[in-house]
């Protein structure tokens, strides 16, 4: 009996470890001004169209990173949003090329466009960009276990 319990415990420990490794392998984080944000990636057209629309909140220190195949002036709006966001456009080198702070759901149907080409767009909770004193040309660091492009 004790031997079978020990085997089950060992099996569950190995399974938990492998699940943890898989989560870590696919996890993505971005760091801005020393603050790390866990990321949900929007890499497909369907995911980019959905974005954070319809969600009731964005947990602290998390964000959504929109990943595009080529640099462009990608526009964003607040359709079906329930909370305010900071929208940050990043170039291929992960430098901030534009940002809109405190964009509220009430701004819909206005579309916000950057003044420069971007390959990534980061959405985080409103107030974070100001709290971190983010500005143009600030550098982000991206750490992803999965391949982005």
Automatic annotation (TrEMBL):
It comes from the Bacteria. Pfam families: DUF192. This is DUF192 domain-containing protein. The lineage of its organism: Bacteria, Candidatus Nomuraibacteriota.
């Amino acid at each position: 009996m004790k031997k079978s319990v020990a085997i089950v415990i060992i099996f569950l420990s190995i399974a938990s470890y492998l699940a943890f490794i898989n989560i870590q392998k696919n996890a993505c984080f971005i760091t801005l001004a020393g603050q790390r944000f866990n990321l949900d990636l929007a890499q497909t057209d369907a995911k980019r169209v959905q974005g954070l629309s319809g969600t009731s909140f964005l947990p602290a220190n998390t964000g959504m990173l929109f990943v595009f195949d080529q640099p462009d002036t990608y526009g964003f709006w607040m359709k079906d949003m329930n909370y305010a966001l900071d929208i940050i456009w990043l170039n291929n080198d992960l430098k901030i090329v534009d940002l809109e702070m405190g964009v509220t759901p009430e701004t819909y149907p206005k579309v916000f466009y950057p003044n420069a080409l971007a390959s990534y767009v980061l959405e985080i909770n409103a107030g974070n960009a100001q709290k971190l004193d983010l500005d143009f040309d600030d550098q982000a660091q991206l750490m992803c276990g999965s391949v982005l492009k």
